[in-house]
Write a structure and sequence with these properties.
7-stranded mixed beta sheet, 2-enoyl-CoA Hydratase, Chain A, domain 1, alpha/beta, 9-stranded parallel beta sheet, binds 3-hydroxy-3-methylglutaryl-coenzyme A, about 675 residues, elongated
Length: about 675
């Protein structure tokens, strides 16, 4: 919290904690006030050297909020496509295309996007419209609290550039210098020290205005004129940039010649004195080494990487250079590693495909091209076979959720997408009654829980008007929400959560209390309670049961976004689909599998697993085991029927008919 002021909006949250803070109000939503974090020191005008040093530290702490993952696994990606990528493209790209590119990247979840450059149009005619781009993306740069914390750094290599950047209300500027003398002379027409002096003059003016400064050092491995760069030369520039107040320095392999071995040697050298959280990796992909370099740098502690959507860019100094490392390639890698980048790969891939088409150039991302090809093949693929495709019949639409049925399967869908499918009081009560009544219905074997819209469920509805601090109301809330989770947990049917978007707090609980979770790559789980001063009290037992103690504890304490790949690896997500259509196919295939399962036997299995988890080696467990064993072969039981069918060589028992006949 060091560099933030906690700003409370509306009323103060009641200090009595969960019971009082969370209570249904008269609107039947959960009353809770919104809090936002605001960076401290922004807008300070103090330029005294000591104050400046303090500002540097402050800025580092401020920016380390999402960047320094010391000990953390998450990665921050700085998208450089709109600036570094486009500047190497000869044909002029229209301003609206640039603006749309930035908007699409932001919508894909990228929080740091290098928007443009304030350099002489003579140097880089492609980015001569920098001021206009900044004007048009203003709704993004002036996002409201709660929209998330986005940054749009711009290149401002000299005081004139800074002046123009400030006129465009830039909040962050990028300065740079080369580690190699020869490259500095060829590229900037000055020595390294002269380039650093220029950079420092920008930092000195920017920092007192509350403008963040990021440094980039180019040619970390080699330059095209004098060969390999010495680690000492890189370290010299890194330290100078940090000393002048850069909150981090990005290490640029301008030619894209470095291998993971070079990356390791350089980082081991730099990390002796410089913490990893102050460094970022900016690898070009000329020799196809960039992803491997990122992986090695990640293993050595770096958590910020620059990359460019669709691999936009190139390098005028490296003949045949493919350009920048493609953002899709590292997001794909980190997704598969279970490392959170905050980026929606599907949306990013769409953006990469779109901009490649706009520019009339091949998609420079390997992962992006593969996923686009796969998606195209997917649309041509035959539809799900008729035998497995269920037609849902609407049973009842309750407004905020609806109930449908297909044979022995009931599907409950949350239909409150405009509010993130947050659970109101009537929803809690209605769903509880629904699960309790379905528990009595022998003809329902499986219950699917799904959701419409962007989110699976954002937990209890927090949009209430007035806070209810009445203890009896709080107790009422506790009882009602607990009862919902109990009803789902005690459901004799096999319960399946189909998660096609982010879940928060109680929404995490809702997906976790189900027996089975099928999820798409859009699924995420955030136990946001701790960030609101709360605890996931009611849902904690399901989290721990399904995720395991250590994993659940860390996720609860950090309130971080848990990625679908992490839960899949843990075995807490049982089926993983690429997108929504794939997820539907997965669900129907899974329901086909469940058709073979006898429903009463399945409910006994659930009881046996539960007691094995909660009360292993207890007398209760022994009793349950012997009771179930005895019941299994009673006359008229599923067991008797199943074995008789086996003896008749029936391969798949028709349990729907069995129970329909048994009903009579
Ligand atoms: C989900 C993000 C990050 C999306 O953040 P975003 O992508 O910026 O979208 P947004 O914030 O604009 O959300 C879209 C709409 O959904 C609404 N919305 C969204 N969530 C809720 C909610 N819970 N209650 C009521 N409304 C909600 C939100 O207010 C907005 O409505 P609009 O402003 O357009 O009218 C953001 O909206 C957010 O942070 N929501 C709050 C999530 C949260 O922290 N929930 C905690 C609930 S407490 C709880 O569940 C307690 C429990 C049960 O776990 C305790 C226990 O176990 O004992």
């Amino acid at each position: 919290m060091a560099a933030y002021h906690l700003v409370q909006h509306h009323h103060q949250m009641h200090p009595a904690g969960l019971h009082r803070a969370l209570a249904f109000n008269s609107n039947n939503t959960l009353a809770l006030k919104r809090t936002v974090l605001r960076p401290a020191g922004s807008g300070s005008r103090n330029s005294h050297p000591r104050a400046l040093r303090w500002q540097h530290q402050c800025q580092r702490r401020q920016y380390s909020r999402s960047t320094s993952f010391s000990g953390g696994r998450d990665v921050r990606i700085l998208e450089v496509g709109p600036r570094d990528g486009l500047q190497n493209i000869k044909t002029l790209v229209p301003t609206p295309t640039k603006v749309e590119l930035i908007e699409r990247l932001a919508a894909a979840g990228l929080r740091d996007i290098e928007a443009t450059s304030f350099v002489s149009p003579k140097w880089v005619p492609q980015l001569a419209d920098g001021a206009e781009v900044m004007r048009q993306i203003r709704p993004l740069t002036h996002a409201q609290p709660g929209d998330g914390d986005r940054r749009f750094p711009v290149l401002a290599p000299n005081p004139k550039g800074l002046e123009n950047a400030m006129k465009s209300d830039a909040k962050e500027v990028v300065i740079f210098a080369s580690a190699s003398q020869a490259f500095s002379k060829a590229n900037q027409n000055c020595t390294v020290d002269e380039a650093l002096a220029q950079a420092e003059s920008v930092a000195r003016k920017a920092l007192p205005q509350g403008i963040a400064v990021r440094g980039v050092v180019s040619c970390i491995f080699a330059d095209p004129y004098s060969g390999p760069t010495k680690p000492q030369e890189v370290e010299y520039v890194v330290k100078r940039l940090l000393d002048m107040g850069c909150y981090e320095v990005s290490l640029g392999d301008t030619l894209g010649v470095g291998t993971p071995y070079d990356t390791q040697l350089l980082l081991e050298y730099l990390l002796r004195d410089t913490p990893a959280r102050l460094l970022a990796g900016h690898f070009h992909d000329t020799y196809g080494q960039a992803v491997a370099n990122v992986a090695r740098a990640y293993d050595l502690g770096l958590r910020t990487f620059d990359s460019s959507v669709a691999g936009l860019g190139g390098c005028p100094y490296a003949v045949g250079a493919k350009g920048n490392l493609a953002t899709e390639d590292i997001v794909y890698m980190f997704d598969r590693m279970g490392v959170n980048t905050g980026v929606d790969l599907d949306k990013l891939v769409e953006t990469g495909d779109w901009i490649s088409q706009q520019l009339g150039r091949p998609n420079g991302s390997r992962a992006g091209s593969a996923l686009v090809a796969k998606a195209k093949a997917g649309t041509k693929a035959p539809p799900t076979p008729a035998s497995t495709k269920r037609t849902w019949t609407l049973v009842q639409d309750y407004g905020d959720y609806k109930v449908e049925r297909a044979g022995p399967v009931v599907q409950v869908t949350l239909t409150r997408p405009a509010n993130g499918n947050a659970l109101t009081g009537p929803m809690v009560d209605g769903l509880t009654a629904l699960y309790r009544s379905l528990a009595q219905d022998r003809t329902v074997f499986h219950i699917v829980l799904a959701a419409e819209g962007r989110f699976f469920c954002t937990g209890m509805d927090l949009s209430g008007g007035t806070e209810t601090s009445d203890t009896s109301a709080a107790d009422g809330y506790f009882a009602r929400v607990s009862e919902l989770f109990r009803a789902i947990d005690e459901s004799p049917q096999t319960t399946i959560a189909v998660v096609d978007g982010p879940c928060y707090a109680g929404g995490v609980g809702l997906s976790t209390v189900c027996d089975v979770r099928l999820a798409s790559s859009r699924a995420r789980w955030t136990l946001s309670e701790v960030k609101l001063g709360l605890a996931p009290a009611i849902i904690s037992k399901f989290m721990v049961r399904e995720w395991g103690v250590s994993f659940a504890r860390e996720a609860i304490l950090s309130g971080r976004e848990v990625h679908v790949a992490e839960l899949h690896r843990l075995g807490a997500v049982h089926g993983l689909a690429d997108g929504s259509d794939d997820l539907q196919r997965l669900l129907h295939g899974y329901l086909d599998q469940l058709r073979k399962a006898a429903p009463v036997a399945a409910s006994w299995c659930k009881d046996l697993v539960k007691v094995a988890w909660a009360l292993p080696t207890s007398a209760k467990q022994e009793q349950l085991i012997s009771d179930k064993f005895a019941d299994m072969m009673l006359p008229g039981s599923e067991g008797r029927h199943g074995i008789a069918q086996f003896q008749k060589k029936v391969k798949v028992v028709d349990w729907v008919s069995f129970w329909n006949e048994n009903k009579k």
